[in-house]
Amino acid sequence: MTAETAQRFPPERLAVCTLAERPELRAQLFSAEFHSAWPEFVRHDPAASLYYGESALDRYLDFALAAVDKDAPDRVIARGFSVPIAFRDGTAGRDQLPLGGWDAVIRWADADWRAGRRSTVVSALEITVLAPYRGRGIAQLMLQAMIANMWARGFGDLYAPLRPSDKHKEPLVPFADYVARTRGDGLPEDPWLRAHVRAGGRIVRIAPYSMVIPGSLAEWSEWTGMDFARNGDIVVPGALAPVHVSREADHAVYVEPNLWVHHRV
Ligand SMILES: CC(C)(COP(=O)(O)OP(=O)(O)OC[C@H]1O[C@@H](n2cnc3c(N)ncnc32)[C@H](O)[C@@H]1OP(=O)(O)O)[C@@H](O)C(=O)NCCC(=O)NCCS
Fold first, then answer.
1. Three-state DSSP class for 53?
2. Closest Cα to atom 43, ligand 1: which residue?
3. 32, 35, 96, 179: most buried, per Cβ within 10 A?
């Protein structure tokens, strides 16, 4: 056994359940430890509350996943969120995956619920592994669990508006150039995109405005600890692209690109 495989988390020790199955784990999915896995500004995406809001999430308990180590079954070490949506069902404007990515599917799901529309596919929203457990293959196991969960509920397609995990290290590189990079073995250079492709995911299209996060300069300062003293494109830690700042208008807007990937079972 190589050192790398020795570090892998044993798949048989990971138990993944839905929040419908284990509602007592819900608070842990929103612990400070999980929050710290994301840049603070991501939590201020206006679309998010339509899914993550207390009463909204009640609709999606079958699609919210929690993972525990069977040796410590009360501590959640990874979470996964997905959402069923109506896609290519004849609903106006839904013949293509939305350019508005993550925000758009959350809004679609909310509109579906209001209209009583039947879902036809599932969209991934997020997989997060707690920092001490990363690099051991747990995210890949979570992706498999998310696919198995949608299959068990009668769906055959999982779409993911994927956030390439290392893009934030090169925020000035055009997104299309970054996601097109491959290694010698032909697989994508970005680790999270590679994990999806290795799991059978097919790249569909870029969602150029997947998360749009506006705020006043004071709000952005609070979220980032930065002072935004000049106009223009400002690099912010954790952001995949620069944030657009207007001092005259007293606002900054972050537009995050993501990449649509399709898993067909
Ligand atoms: C992205 C994330 C989910 C990956 O979780 P993970 O459990 O570490 O990932 P895995 O161990 O399953 O590895 C997936 C791939 O990334 C690689 N990888 C993992 N950690 C890495 C690191 N620190 N540096 C470089 N590559 C890394 C793995 O080697 C693997 O690729 P490989 O199989 O080709 O070697 C995790 O870092 C995370 O929760 N980040 C914060 C939230 C986030 O960005 N989620 C993704 C968008 S939804």
1. coil
2. 128
3. 179
